[in-house]
Design goal:
Elements (H helix, E strand, L loop, with lengths): L1 E6 L3 H11 L4 E7 L15 E3 L2 H6 L5 E4 L6 H11 L3 E4 L6 H14 L3 E4 L6 H12 L4 E11 L9 H15 L5 E11 L7 E9 L3 E8 L1 E13 L4 E5 L4 E4 L2 E5 L4 H15 L2 H19 L5
Helix pairs in contact: 3-4, 4-8, 6-8
Length: 301
Amino acid sequence: MLNIGIVGCGNWSLTVIKELEKNEYFNFNSIFCRNYLTKNLNFEKKIKLYENIEKFFSNNKLDCVYVAGNPILNLQVVKLATKKRIPLILEKPISNSYNNAKKIQLLADKNQLIIIPNLTNYFSDSFYFLKNYIEENYNEIKKIIVYEGNNGPFRKNIHPIWDWGFHSFSTLLKIFESKKISKITKKELKSSKLYPNAIVSKFMFNVDSKFQVKLVTGNLFKKKIRKIKIILKNNNILESDMIDHRIFINQNIVFKNKSKPLQSLLNIFKKTIKEKDTNFSKNLINLSCETTKILENFYNC
């Protein structure tokens, strides 16, 4: 069993903790949170609470860490983890800037540190079905449409592309990693006077000059949505729902996940640590850096 700590105590951290507490491979033993005294944190067992991140890493028995705090912390976390070679899961984005993301990549490479960015769609079993379908029908694709967003969150200093579009862009970059993506354009479709950073954006780009991909993402949808639609030249349509992880072809279900992406992520993390597989993490770090670079061209994190 591996001792694992958490950095951050937001809503997603609480979801991760619930999953860890029922996972037989990890022993959740500590959490870093600057304002944990104002949080209603209830655990099944006694957990060490830290308000100082350096003490969290130095005075703690840790085999690995799940980082789900503000991305501005990620570079510091990686530097601290490097001292004890502690494997990490990093929530998206990998950092608050492309420059810091590259520093994380260099530290990981130099120190052979295992860092797995949580690219949620990638850890869904449905991702591989989708990727294989696209590869098998590549020359028949007419267009691809992606919708990803929700009604919120409404952050004052962050564009919603970092909350929602990061998953979509990283998924598409992974699917088309051997192809040429070009002519990325952006248009704002919808905004709100009530919130400064409430907006829906449309991104368009070409793949190998063969077909166009349209990505609509933001935080002004009526409800949470994560869908990828592949339209072929014969008008057959594949639709992948990345919330319940089901895939339909012409409205007939053809695939459904057996496990949650978070469960798959934790199992892969355990396996990667056991096998000391830094090549797997290198690939995902590079993908995260490329995604960060694209998004930063439009908006700072």
